[in-house]
Amino acid sequence: AYFFGMMSHPIQGGLVNSLGHAIGGRNFDTKDNSRNNLLVAWLVFGEGLQNNHHRFPKSAKFSYRSWEPDAGFLACLALETLGLLSVAYSYLLPVPVPHWHPQEETRRAA
Questions:
Q1: What is the mean pLDDT of the chain?
Q2: Alpha carbon distance 56, 97 (integer Å)
Q3: How many Å apart are CA 30 and CA 67, to the nearest integer?
Q4: How far apart are CA 45 and CA 69, in angstroms?
Q5: Of 24, 65, 88, 97, which has the fewest Cβ atoms less than 10 A away?
Q6: pLDDT at site 93
Q7: CA-CA distance, 38 to 25, in Å (whole number)?
Q8: Could you tell me where the beta strands, DSSP code E, fall in 50-106?
Q9: DSSP labels for 49-66?
Q10: How far is CA 4 from CA 10, 12, 39, 75, in A?
């Protein structure tokens, strides 16, 4: 287990630093080229959501959209429940405001 843990860190870092800054979508306009790579996010507990992380670097939560995978934050919540960790909720990513579209208003009225 120790060997696997030690050898996986360079692989994880490589995935995050190469793909997380080159391929994927962007939720926020940041001054860098950070991206949200969902494949890396699934493989590395949410670490692939680099654009979100670069916009809110102090947040323990990397996901912004409800469909973005963030197992790392779930682990933080579990550890907090056990009393082993304290999440700084004031630094968390904000909840996105749902988009309003004029056609949706006419559909509701009909």
A1: 83
A2: 17
A3: 21
A4: 7
A5: 97
A6: 87
A7: 9
A8: none
A9: BHHHHHHSTT-S----ST
A10: 11, 12, 21, 20
